[in-house]
Amino acid sequence: MAYYITGDCHAHFEKLIWLARFNKKLGKEDVIILLGDVGLNYFGADKDRENKKILADFPNYFLCVHGNHEERSYHIQTYRTQIWRGGEVYYEPEFQNIVFAKDGEIYDFDGKKAIVIGGAYSRDKEYRILTGLPWFPDEQPDDKVKSQVENKLNEVACK
């Protein structure tokens, strides 16, 4: 198994396509972790679906951590939840190899564990609103999410 980490694709997957083309060993157990602003839950149903089809052709899994410039998976009706590598993720049945991390969940990567909390403040919020670009009110983790993450960390630290 191999793990690759990148971020801020903004629906530009050239670097992932290059990796898959030149890494002949990329397989179904490998994971590419995409840290924020992937471009899969941003444009709306049709364009997002086209982008998901690109990644669905890869042999590996994608673990996406939501950024500030994308809709949360739990707001999109096509997403379901399942347990993946010890933590709950969001997925769409049509795109089984693309999963979105859930804030506060802990994932196991061959004995190495990672907790996830996504989102950020958009410095360009006003520009986005003025120009009609998408802006998501829940772009940052709220106090409830922060508390859930803290509780999970405390729970794990006490074991």
**Low-confidence blocks of residues:** none
From N to C, what is the helix and strand string? EHEHEEEEEEHH
Q: What's the total number of strands? A: 8
If you average the pLDDT, what whole number results?
Answer: 93
Report the principal-axis shape: globular
Question: Could you explain how this protein is built, in words?
Answer:
The structure is a single chain. With 159 residues, the chain is an alpha/beta fold. Helices cover 27% and strands 26% of the residues. The strands form two sheets. Strands 1-2-3-6-5-4 form a six-stranded mixed sheet. Strands 7-8 form a two-stranded antiparallel ribbon. Strand 1 (3-7), helix 1 and strand 2 form a beta-alpha-beta unit. The chain is globular. The model has no long low-confidence stretch (mean pLDDT 93).
Write the layout of secondary structure elements.
Layout: E1 3-7, H1 14-22, E2 31-35, H2 45-56, E3 61-65, E4 80-84, E5 87-92, E6 95-101, E7 106-109, E8 112-115, H3 125-131, H4 143-157
Parallel strand pairs: 1-2, 2-3, 3-6
Antiparallel strand pairs: 4-5, 5-6, 7-8
